[in-house]
Automatic annotation (TrEMBL):
Belongs to the universal stress protein A family. Residues 3-136, 158-289 form the UspA domain. It holds the Pfam family Usp. This is Universal stress protein UspA. It comes from the Bacteria. Transmembrane segments: none annotated. InterPro entries: Rossmann-like_a/b/a_fold (IPR014729), Universal_stress_UspA (IPR006015), UspA (IPR006016). Gene3D superfamilies: HUPs (3.40.50.620). It comes from Streptomyces katrae.
């Protein structure tokens, strides 16, 4: 089966920037790019003339304009496109069900407010079964450096916990011939959280920081072996995960984080770390679901 990357477009400058980023990524990875424009007829309760065929024609124009632009800029691209008669979230979730990646656009919103992801984006990231990449755009242009610089990936937990996230990050770095920075953030546990067992394990490694470094190296070992061509830097730092990752990725080409797949009483969530970097990272962010 042909490997597929899906991008959602709606005619906005942000979605055009996301489509262009997705096209470059598809060419690098030798994937087919599938462009999806979700549109459904929803007459407004207003005294204005509304015509189904006219609105449907506009939706098709958005798709054809995107297709023409991508074909012109990326002649080697394998491209398909469709208008899906449904709301954006269910339409894109269905389109990306068997895809390897879903790409969305987000709007630059200033240095303090960060990037505006939007409710659709948050719902898609929380529910998608594949990695979702949020591409930053200002004035319809992908943020400079979005294809350059190292790939930064956040690692947490043990070997099995971070396998899907590291796989995506290593594959991306290999396709770009870019270095990879693997980041593990850690905090001092509360004094009442110490236990004889945990302290004995930490003492074996000479303290908490060496223990965290050993855990990171253990998680990286199988992927270093599988991708020997990727230059890897292991980065362990004391601090909150969101803050440490944003600092490490200040000049990165892509930031990769995980999202644990689990249901809460309020439905699916993207997690505090993913939420922080999605709204404040200057580079594109990939959120990879994992169990």
């Amino acid at each position: 089966m042909e490997r597929t990357l899906v991008v959602g477009v709606d005619g906005s400058p942000e979605s055009r920037a996301a489509a262009d980023w997705a096209a470059r990524e598809a060419v690098r990875r030798d994937m087919r790019l599938h462009v999806v424009h979700a549109w459904s007829w929803q007459p407004l309760a207003l005294p204005v003339v509304q015509d189904h065929d006219t609105e449907a024609g506009r939706a098709q124009e958005v798709l054809e304009e995107t297709r023409a632009e991508l074909t012109r800029r990326h002649p080697r691209l394998s491209l398909t496109a469709e208008v899906v008669p449904d709301a954006p979230v269910p339409a894109l979730l269905r389109a990306a069900k068997d895809a390897e990646m879903l790409v969305l656009g987000s709007r630059g919103h200033g240095a303090l407010a960060g990037f505006l992801l939007g409710s659709y984006g948050q719902q898609l990231i929380a529910a998608a079964e594949c990695p979702v990449v949020s591409v930053r755009a200002r004035h319809g242009i992908a943020v400079p450096g979005s294809d350059e610089g190292e790939v930064v990936v956040g690692q947490q937990g043990g070997v099995a916990d971070s396998a899907d996230v590291l796989r995506f990050a290593f594959e991306t770095a290999a396709s770009r011939k870019a270095p990879l920075r693997a980041v593990r953030a850690w905090n001092l546990p509360p004094v009442y959280g110490y236990s004889p067992g945990s302290m004995w394990i930490a003492d074996r490694f000479g303290g908490l920081e060496p223990f965290e470094k050993a855990a990171l190296e253990q998680a990286l070992e199988p992927w270093r072996t599988r991708y020997p061509e990727v230059d890897v830097v292991a980065h362990v730092e004391l601090g909150g995960a969101g803050h440490v990752l944003l600092s490490a990725a200040s000049d990165a080409g892509l930031l990769v984080v995980g999202r644990q797949v689990r249901e809460s009483g309020l439905g699916t969530r993207i997690g505090s770390t993913a939420h922080a970097v999605l709204h404040h990272s200057a580079c594109p962010v990939a959120v990879v679901p994992h169990r």
